[in-house]
Amino acid sequence: MEITKQLIAEHGLTENEYxxxxxxxxxxxxxxxxxIFSVMWSEHCSYKSSRSTLSMLPTKSEKVxxxxxxxxxxxxxxxxIWIAFKIESHNHPSAVEPYQGAATGVGGILRDxxxxxARPIAILDSLRFGEMDLAQxxxxxxxxxxxxxxxxxxxxxxxxxxxVCLDPAYERNPLVNVMxxxxxxxxxxxxxxxxxxxxxxxxxxxxxxKDGIKGASFASRELTESSYEDRPAVQVGDPFMEKLLLExxxxxxxxxxxxxxxxMGAAGLTxxxxxxxxxxxxxxxxxxxxxxxxxxxMSAYELMLSxxxxxxLICVKKGYEDEVEKIFKKWDxxxxxxxxxxNDGILRVKDGEEIVAEIPAKTLADDAPLxxxxxxxxxxxxxxxxxxxxxxxxxxxxxxxxxxxxxLLASPVIANKSWIYEQYDHMVRTNTLIxxxxxxxxxxxxxxxxxxxxxxx
Length: 457
Hints:
globular
């Protein structure tokens, strides 16, 4: 297929970014390669516009065991107990398909936790919507809350806290942040990396379908009226399948032959392969003809960019393939060797005998172009900083203090949110000490210890 300017633009790449791709490959990319660069260099995967700002945040401490760059952060809370946690957004998918967008946001954040070898013990959220006088915003709110509840409740993990705020800035374009926290007690953190030339790369979990194709690129674009036609870019989740995957993966992390594990979240098979290779400083070769699939007519492009849920990629020591299969077969999940580690630093993707992509893994995972956009302090912040408030008098009003209080309490921003958190199962696992609505933070005990974790968003 000819790579035209229109095709490049449809993949969310600029002309300068395409020129950089040509310089890397020293040739014209295949369609599959263009799609791979598109998702890995999207804002959703690369943080190319926000990485410089995020790098200003403090990330190091003697208690921080794993910082930025892995699937989740890990901190040491003492007595041999480590906590893995992460928060992530799923805004665009939730705006287009609120139930599945929010549900798969929960599924993705849970996989990030148990990928590290931690058992998830809590879910939290932070939500923003436009004002409730618009029917579309009401629909989004109901759908998002139902999606979070549906996935989390089925997984048997309590949703113990969150917040909901309303503002015209989020009109038809919600902010859906989901957080999860897990516990590691065996002293072992599983990294999302591949090691050792010749070691097998194994696909585990659910089969690959056509849902969520180019979801990472979609999540990085500006949301417009035409975005609502992009429902195929929204993933479809199955929490019961994820529950099986969770238990199988946590069983696997007890084995010393496991070298690395990565979930197939944003950018699916593309992201998991190139990130595992780049983190381990190795290459990887996979054969797409071996990938379990739900649809027979899937192209290499679709297989690499599908974001079907409940899938993982693992790297183990050579000779232990059958042991891995036994574990996942017990949980009725796929376990298929689709490739192996190489020593050339190249992500090589084959479809049978045909090579459909050959790209240096590090350029995909670490070398996306970085942008530094101009910044300007909003005028209202300047006014707030310089305003002299010493002599301010209360504004005149015809309302009594009691009437003012009732008007405040009637505001959707302040009003009781129990109808939201009552949809969440916050007592499952029987470890919740402080439930939503009962305090400023949810609190979960760590059974068998004298510790408890307070969480809030």
